[in-house]
């Protein structure tokens, strides 16, 4: 680890989650360079009556009233006056931007950038994404008004935490996150999974790959202690998801091995009051994800969502005989130390995931077509080696296991009903193939941003050209 590690130099929400009730993401354009630089300087200095202070990564015992952070696109760095010689030192994928890399990450068809609503239909105008996290809704409008004095606000996106930490597909989310030795996070005390090196999320530190450090953009005061974020607006088709669970359960009802999936004598271990069809729905949901909807890993409890003995939500691994399907969303995105073709990639593509849901509540008794989904941030030290590699190689191609190569992630993948398949596992080692999985999640906008350190924000504020 670098001897220069200083948590107070790092923006908040990278190494430690905020866990607030509300978020507003402001999509900004630099229209007045002088005003933008003055705003950054005041923000990094702690803020004032007209500028919110930028939240640092330092440990706090009492949460601040709100948290405010910024991510800057390549075009934003250019708009702030970053010299061309320094811009050249940033990674290609960041310079090209998310919209230009759409095919690489599965954003085609309905997810294609040409279908993204404003302001994401004009990616070169998106310079900064500023995020406000709070438990008090009044802070959102107050801080937006402050930001509007220095930037042109192209658009906003509001998110909120759903009850019980769930997303609209009704899964408990955000359970397994990277942990860092030098970061004290009370919410991760007792979490029993391996520590991640700082180079997983920050530029300038060792990574999980021995001797490999991701290139730090120049000069050091700009690149060091920075990070990258794939900011994503992902719509979740809850109606299609619940309908597919119904269809899959109906198919399984007639399968000769259905009782291996749900023991008819112990359906209450899957869910109280469920009949066989309802229990099969939950088994399908659990195998598609790799977790039961209450967060219990399928690997550790394949026969019960409510096991008789408590199991760890984070401390498990995969083997060749694992009951968790190789194609499950959880296992694809984080194969842990399990057997994969690219053995060198085990634990090397970890991402810090932050996100909140957007859209109205969903009532399964009165389904509607309102748009709802996730405002997600996928943070790491290298977009190409982490986010894009996961999305392309693991989520949408399945290169990590010959048994799933050529298939897509059943939840996040770019599926089409005509070609999609998913193999459910059975206790006897056999499998049951599900087909006709629709695309359940579509991109509705996004951007690659650089999350500068506090030192880097001062550097950008002090530029004179």
From TrEMBL:
Keywords noted in UniProt: Iron, Metal-binding, Oxidoreductase, Peroxidase
Species: Yoonia phaeophyticola
Keyword Oxidoreductase part of the UniProt annotation: yes
Domain called DyP dimeric alpha+beta barrel: residue spans: 9-152
Lineage: Bacteria, Pseudomonadati, Pseudomonadota, Alphaproteobacteria, Rhodobacterales
GO MF, one annotated term: peroxidase activity
PANTHER family: BLR4509 PROTEIN, DEFERROCHELATASE/PEROXIDASE
Pfam families according to UniProt: DyP_N
Name the UniProt record assigns to this protein: Dyp-type peroxidase
Cofactor(s) of this protein: heme b
Keyword Protein biosynthesis: no
